[in-house]
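Page 37, continued from 36.
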């Protein structure tokens, strides 16, 4: 099983960035997918979730209206479009796969993370 994030880097406040997470080794379309982030000295927190078919999404209040999660089951990839990022969005961003996309508990897999730095 592999989850490989990409697309991180340095972005200016008010810019945009798209993160990708490529999955392999499991039936991607059967798993709910999430993006989490962890800033230095802080706990890992949920950013966004998307159901197996993409019809249900959930966002943290701090990113609602700015970040958008999507998935392409044909490409086994989940995305996080980050619009108008703020310095407080600086963190390592991780993708996660959950076999149960109703309770979001049980078997899950994590990627290794990609650094996003928002700074002018």
């Amino acid at each position: 099983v592999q989850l490989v994030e990409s697309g991180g880097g340095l972005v200016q406040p008010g810019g945009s960035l798209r993160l990708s997470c490529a999955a392999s080794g499991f039936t991607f379309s059967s798993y709910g997918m999430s993006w989490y982030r962890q800033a230095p000295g802080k706990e890992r927190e949920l950013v966004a979730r998307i159901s197996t078919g993409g019809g249900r999404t959930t966002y943290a209040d701090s990113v609602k209206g700015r970040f958008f999660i999507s998935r392409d089951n044909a490409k086994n990839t989940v995305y996080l479009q980050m619009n108008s990022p703020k310095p407080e969005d600086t963190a390592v961003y991780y993708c996660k796969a959950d076999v149960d996309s109703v309770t979001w508990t049980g078997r899950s897999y994590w990627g290794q993370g990609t650094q996003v730095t928002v700074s002018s």
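The mean pLDDT is 96. Flag for discussion at group meeting. The CA atoms of residues 17 and 82 lie 5 Å apart.
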